[in-house]
Specification:
about 700 residues; alpha+beta; Beta-Lactamase; 5-stranded antiparallel sheet; 21 helices; 22 strands; about 55% helix
């Protein structure tokens, strides 16, 4: 007999003994009532058959001792009660014993099963092994199902959730008849919790291993694209997908920074031209900053350009987030439908964040390399080339920029020296005074801090139209297309040398904290270079300037004539040239000396400058000869200008000698097809006017 049953039977016996003593003392049944004790004890310990035998022996002994019929009947009744009570207690005790043995066996079986589970080092191995481990132990049908069942009985079955970090990833479903009792169900629940703890440990270990491998792969790369390619190769193998790509937002489109796997013919043009702004999955992820998981592309609605229907059946897109807004999207795709589990989604979120942080140093290296290249190449560049390179680097490196322009200080005014995405020739006609640009840049003017203006606020359009003609700023400046503008003054030793404008067309929230940070750092780095370029311009202008009159000299004339004629040919507009030779100038030199002649030349330069149009270019061509290039001017306009300039010269008198002028006029394209022919025509007509005593000759 089990020890527990033995002790309980003796306890019942003692209680029965106490009752018997009480009955005997009261004279009921006599001392024969003490026989109730062994009868009850025997029933509890050995069963009702032995208890019946013990009761018969006790009745016979009592009859021999007393012989009273009433007492015998009483004892018989007492024995029956003791037997029934003992039998009921025995059955209860046996139930306890069986249950305890079953629980011990179940615990032992579950412990053995759990020992097998913890030997598994892969989540899929654990889930696959559970049914085989438990079916033999439980004598029931066991399955691991998707996480769409709740814990508790379900149509003769029990469902126990298996979780990773508290998130269900599967359900352990057990179908058994008879059902589990509450303690068994509790044991199964604890077993499921233990398996969940192991799955969580496996997930954490997997994440740590993947992050460590990513770190090693990325850290060993030299360039940003190489680091991205190594990361994608690792992720494609880990997630068991056929393709992986990292798409990067640049200038309003998404371009592949790196790609692993086979490229489909239908998407080749996106690799070359980028993915334009649209409503596809890639742009949805960029704008919402939330991932998209598609188990089956064929059943999805808007497929978008990243997931063409041919050859791709499942896709996951996740924003790669750094310290600020993510401008890269990680894309994993498979050739067969697959379910992206909650565990995989959580892991992909961790990977995307880690990837963004690991790639950031390469982006900083890329920006530093671009600045160093600019600095090294500056001595070999022309000023216009340098400004163009500075602007292109800014548009490429500042996150969110799609286009831009660079305004440079020139003799108290700011004018456009470079434009990216705009018509520079159209913008070059605009001049800005410092107060206008100070209003445009706001409080950032002297601090060099960037400032943002959005189309939503209205100030972007209002301030633009205050300082520039609408017909120019709309056409050449694409004002109606700009959604957001980032302006940063380029300050050197307290003076604003230039103003950098960066614009976004496709996103009204393209610029963020990272954009401001990069733009400010960029402006600080290029400020010294812009100062050096300006100093070189000063030296070049000195070489191109006549020291006496301050006008551009013959060298500048040769350069500017070629430039303006090429622009006129490209833009298909007329261009006129005036060559002027002073009369009576030699008389001033002979009578009053060369100092008086120099004063006369200065006064002529001032008189000509006083009637100069905004687009005309005035030169001291040599000695007492002057030249004027007149863009956008036909023959009729050139004649009117020649008369105006001749009148200005005739008003100049020096020491009682009043000067005159002979003017030769030539017009492109009527008189010549190139600069040399145009110059010969104008110069020849000037000599004809001189020999014929005429003021001007135009044909």
């Amino acid at each position: 007999m089990d020890k527990r049953a033995f002790y309980l039977s003796w306890g019942v016996g003692l209680l029965a003994a106490g009752l018997s003593l009480y009955l005997a003392a009261a004279g009921l049944g006599g001392w024969g009532a003490l026989a109730v004790i062994p009868v009850g004890t025997v029933v509890v310990g050995y069963g009702w058959r032995w208890g019946l035998a013990a009761g018969a022996v006790a009745l016979l002994a009592g009859y021999r001792l007393r012989g009273s019929l009433e007492e015998l009947l009483f004892l018989t009744f007492a024995f029956l009660l003791a037997g029934v009570a003992g039998w009921a207690l025995r059955q209860r005790l046996r139930g306890f014993v069986r249950r305890e043995r079953r629980l011990k066996r179940s615990l032992a079986l579950f412990n053995r099963a759990l020992d097998e589970v913890v030997k598994k080092t892969d989540k899929d191995e654990v889930l696959k092994a559970l049914p085989g481990l438990l079916e033999g132990y439980l004598g029931a049908r066991v399955a691991v199902l998707p996480p769409d069942r709740e814990a508790g009985p379900k149509a003769r079955g029990w469902a126990f959730p298996l979780k990773v970090r508290g998130q269900p990833i599967a359900v352990l479903w057990i179908d058994r008849d008879p059902p589990f009792d509450p303690l068994e169900e509790e044991t199964l629940g604890r077993f499921a919790e233990a398996v969940s703890d192991h799955l969580t440990l496996l997930a954490e270990h997997t994440e740590s291993r993947l992050v460590a491998e990513l770190t090693r792969a990325v850290a060993s790369a030299d360039e940003l694209s190489e680091a991205a390619e190594r990361a994608l190769s690792l992720l494609a193998g880990f997630f068991k997908v056929g393709g992986a790509g990292l798409w990067r937002w640049q200038r309003g489109r998404f371009y592949p920074l790196a790609f692993h796997g086979r490229r489909l013919p239908a998407e080749e043009r996106f690799f070359e031209e980028g993915i334009p702004p649209g409503q596809g999955w890639l742009w949805q992820v960029y704008r919402s900053r939330q991932p998209i998981f598609v188990d089956d592309v064929a059943r999805a609605g808007d497929r978008g350009p990243v997931a063409p229907p041919e050859g791709v059946r499942s896709v996951a897109l996740h924003p790669v987030l750094g310290e600020h807004r993510g401008r890269a999207v990680l894309v994993l795709r498979a050739t067969e439908p697959r379910a992206w589990t909650g565990d995989e989604r959580n892991l992909l979120a961790v990977v995307a964040q880690v990837l963004g942080l690991m790639l950031r140093p390469y982006e900083l290296k890329e920006r530093l390399s671009a600045l160093l290249s600019l600095e090294h190449a500056l001595p070999e560049m022309s000023e216009d080339h340098f400004y163009r390179e500075v602007l292109q680097a800014a548009v490429r490196l500042v996150p969110g920029a799609e286009a831009g322009s660079l305004l440079v200080r020139d003799e108290g005014e700011f004018r456009y020296r470079a434009a990216e995405g705009y018509d520079l020739e159209g913008l070059s006609a605009i001049r800005y005074r410092e107060p206008s640009l100070r209003d445009w840049c706001g409080l950032a003017w002297h601090s060099g801090r960037p400032r943002l203006r959005s189309r939503k606020g209205g100030e972007l359009v209002r301030l633009s139209l205050q300082s520039a003609p609408r017909e120019i700023i709309d056409r050449a400046g694409r004002l109606r297309e700009i959604q957001q503008n980032l302006c940063v003054p380029i300050v050197y030793k307290g003076a604003v040398l230039a103003v950098l404008n960066l614009d976004a067309f496709s996103d009204p929230e393209a610029f963020d904290g990272e954009s401001l940070e990069v733009a400010e750092g960029f402006a600080v780095q290029v400020a010294a270079m812009v100062h050096e370029a300006g100093h070189r311009r000063f030296l070049e202008q000195a070489a191109l300037t006549d020291p006496l009159t301050g006008l551009l000299n013959r060298r500048a004339f040769d350069q500017q004539l070629a430039t303006e004629l090429a622009r006129a040919r490209r833009m298909d507009y007329p261009l006129a040239l005036l060559i002027m030779d002073l009369t009576r100038f030699k008389e001033i030199n002979d009578r009053f000396g060369h100092p008086a002649g120099d004063r006369a030349l200065v006064r002529v330069a001032e008189a000509l400058s006083g009637v100069l149009r905004g687009t005309d270019l005035l030169f001291r061509w040599g000695g007492d000869e002057f030249a004027v290039i007149l863009p956008y001017t036909d023959r009729e306009g050139a004649l009117a200008a020649a008369r105006r300039y001749a009148g200005a010269v005739h008003s100049v008198c020096q020491d009682s000698v009043c000067l005159g002028v002979n003017v030769g006029v030539a017009v492109y394209p009527g008189d010549a097809g190139d600069g040399a022919e145009l110059l010969r025509a104008a110069d020849g007509r000037m000599y004809r006017a001189k020999s014929e005593g005429r003021v001007l000759v135009a044909d």
